[in-house]
Amino acid sequence: MRLDLHHRPTLVKSWLATLHGPQVTVRPVLDGPLPGWAPLVRTAVAWHVAYALVAYAGALSVARSGSSNPIATAIQHGGIAAVLVTALAVWWGGVALSTGLWWTGIRRARAQR
Questions:
Q1: Which secondary structure element, helix H or strand E, spans residue 26, and what is its range?
Q2: Taking the CB of residue 47, how many other CB atoms lie within 10 A of it?
Q3: What is the maximal distance between C-alpha atoms in the chain?
């Protein structure tokens, strides 16, 4: 079953199924049926908790690295606020990048139909 790529709820489900599904991929899910809302949202929350923890651990390791890199120095001197801002930037940067790649796939699929 081909999905309606102009229907917003279907796009949201495709996005959730693609970026938060059992396979790590940025290629959009174009054929259905898609899973229900509850499992998609539960999986997305679990993935984002994992993303946030990894981003926080990375920012914390940069803050404690003792590096003389200007960005690392700024994070070190900025304290916990700088660590949290860095973690958020890394976390949401990854989300934005993967969403952008997914959206590019959706636009290509729309053009081919």
A1: none
A2: 16
A3: 55
